[in-house]
Amino acid sequence: MARPADQFARIDRLGALLVAAGAGVLACLPFVLVKANRIVPGVPRSLLASTPPPGAWACLAALLLAAVVALVIGKPRLRLTAALVGLIALALAVAAAGNTLTPPDNRVVRISPGPAFWVLLVCLGLMATDAITRMRPGPAQRVVWLAGFLAIAILALGSGTFDHLSVMREYAVNAERFSREFARHVLLAAGSLGAAIVVGLPLGVVCYRVPRIRAGILGTLNVIQTVPAIALFGILMAPLGALAAAVPLAARLGIRGIGAAPAVVALFLYSLLPIVANTVAGLDRVSRSAVEAARGMGMTPWQMLSRIELPLALPVIVTGIRVVLVQNIGMVTVAALIGGGGLGTFVFQGIGQTAIDLVLLGAIPIVALAFSAAVVLDALVEVMDRVRR
Amino acid sequence: MRVATLLRWGALTLLVTFLLAPQWFAPVFAPLTEYGAPPIYDQGNLLVLALAHLATVCLAAAASTVVAVGLGILVTRPSGREFLPLSRTLVNIGQTFPPVAVLAVTVPLVGFGEKPTLIALFAYGLLPIFENTIIGIQTCPTAVLEAASGMGMSARQRLLSVELPVAMPLILEGIRLSLVINVGTATIGSTVAAKGLGEVIIAGLLSNNTAFILQGGLVTGLMAILLYDAMVAFEKRVLRRVRIE
Q: What residues of chain A lie within 8 A of the CB of B127, using their CB?
């Protein structure tokens, strides 16, 4: 027989916190908001008042199950399963609310997920994240899970189940533009990263070999980082505009004062510091003995660099690339302000029209992109570190 | 070193002079304008905007420092250990959130103006401080901790006179990082009508006036660099005091 104190100690404190938060918001805050159109404030509805009874009760049962598991069960696998069941139930309930509350043939009414939905989503997400963290998945496993989650999310959104929810309504209106801006967002982030690698890697090697110029170059790149993104975009508009006016070939190549050109150049400049700094740091980390051994074998400096030093420095360099890619995906958003396109277009349009759904249509994919890039590149760095050992 | 110090004082003087008497610099910016547009921002007082910008940044950083250091202490106590793995993961996930997205999502919740900017800066500033607090406390050598316990220190005394002072350099570094990032990020706040230097840049973007953009960008950049230097100097001072004790 366990003593009462032991029983109490077995209650998971993180679980208790999450359950208290989840139960509190479910009781006090609206589950969905019904708006007469896309910009007016919504009328709050609770879970039971927005979803037909059997569905609502089933969702509550699933949430209760997740809560019980969160409180008393310690096994990460079971906790993850319960959290996922809760998440699926929550998603289906909000979809059902959308279908029920939308009057037939009405394209103006918007059903938005309310605060209770978002907080529950965060609570269940935290529970799942905590379980995954405790399971300590390897790099390959993390990437597989990420791919699985993304595939399920895309399939679910594509299946039409959620079509009556406000964000999906915005998507339906902007579907064609969405794919275009999405592709553009990725292209801008990856393109400037590519250019920064091509220039930054040799620059880093030179900085490493010639210590005299190291402080100067890194200092300059550091200063560039302090200039805010919108200002740097703006500052570059003038010289690029002048270039296009003076050199017809540049204009024909698409270089103009507004649009993608200043965005790419600015992102490229921002990207240089992490890549150059990490290349130097990575080369610094290569052990003297490895270099001496290579020299003893009669390798030329070029061979030493390409066969010994760069491969050994690679994990640190890829860490720099991860920083740049995540940072770029975020910063491309701001490029929309100068006509650079990308998902930021929806964000700023949404801010301008006070249409939160449009903001989310831009913001959610940006966060998903940045998060996926971080997971994949982190896994890559981990694999490289292991191979190195 | 001498040259660097001189450069810094020069930069500070330049910044202060520009903010106090921007009209003196009109000839410098005039070649950047077209069709007789004003070379110096004229829709508000630059000094007021710069101070508002700085106030927003410092207020947000102060709030993030209190919360982040508090949370960092909490999850490194024996009673808070359960939260440590999750909070680490959350810090990693949080760092992938672009500040614009945070800003954009806060606007509908609290309305336009300073509030969403403060919230976004606060949330964004939490991460470096929280992470550095945890690393600082966790890397405190076990021998030192055991010595402290051996001297009969209570857990509270140990935290206040051993763990926090040892972690102090890293915590201060975290605060510096979040301050400098915030100076730049706060300019985006002007897209949601917060008072700050972003206003100057956006006015320049809207009226196609490069002089405005350059002024806003340069003042913000200079402020970030000087703030960075000031924090480094402050850190050295604090560390010297801690070491003497």
A: none
Same domain, A212 and A345: yes
Q: What is the pLDDT of residues B143-160, one digit of tens each?
A: 888 888 888 888 888 888
Show the domain range for A106.
Answer: 4-136
Q: Total structural domains in chain A?
A: 2
Residue B175 dihedral angles phi and psi, to the nearest 5°? -65, -40
Tokens 């004082």: give the residue: B9
List CB contacts of B87: < 8 A, sequence separation 6 or more: B71, B75, B130, B134
Q: Do A326 and B95 touch (CB under 8 A)?
A: yes
Give the pair of three-digit tokens for residue A5: 């104190």
Residue A234 inside a domain? The answer is yes
- Say if the Cβ atoms of B98 and A231 lie within 8 Å: no
Which of B36-45, B126-135, B213-222 bottoms out in mean pLDDT, i.e. has the lowest?
B36-45
Q: Are residues A124 and A195 in the same domain?
A: no
Is the CA virtual torsion B236, B237, B239, B240 positive or negative?
Answer: positive
CA distance B24 to A221: 29
Structural domain range at position B169: 44-195
Task: State which of A92, A114, A136 marks the end of a domain.
Answer: A136
Using a CB-CB cut-off of 8 Å, the residues of chain A touching B218 are: 227, 231
pLDDT of res. B60 = 92
Q: Is B93 on the interface with A (CB under 8 A)?
A: yes
Size of interface A-B (CB pairs under 8 A): 140
Q: Which residues pair with A111 in a beta bridge?
A: A34, A165
What percent of chain A stands above pLDDT 70? 94
Q: What is the CATH number of the domain that holds A184?
A: 1.10.3720.10
Q: Which residues pair with A113 in a beta bridge?
A: A32
Task: Judge if A121 and A215 occupy the same domain.
Answer: no
* Same-domain status, A113 and A217: no
Q: How far apart are CA A303 and CA A201, in angstroms?
A: 16
User: Are residues B185 and A228, on separate chains, in Cβ contact within 8 Å?
Assistant: yes
Q: How far is CA B159 from CA A63, A69, A139, B82, B230, in A?
A: 39, 34, 36, 19, 27
Q: Residues A234, B210: contact at Cβ < 8 Å? A: yes
CA dist A145 and A147 (Å) reads: 5
The ipTM of this complex is 0.77
Q: Looking at the domain assignment, is residue B101 inside a domain?
A: yes
Question: In sequence order, what are the beta bridge partners of A156?
Answer: none
The secondary structure of A238-284 as a DSSP string is HHHHHHHHH-HHHHHTT--SSSHHHHHHHHHHHHHHHHHHHHHHHHH
| Cα B132 to Cα B60: distance, rounded to the nearest angstrom | 18
The whole-angstrom separation of Cα A225 and Cα A272 is 9
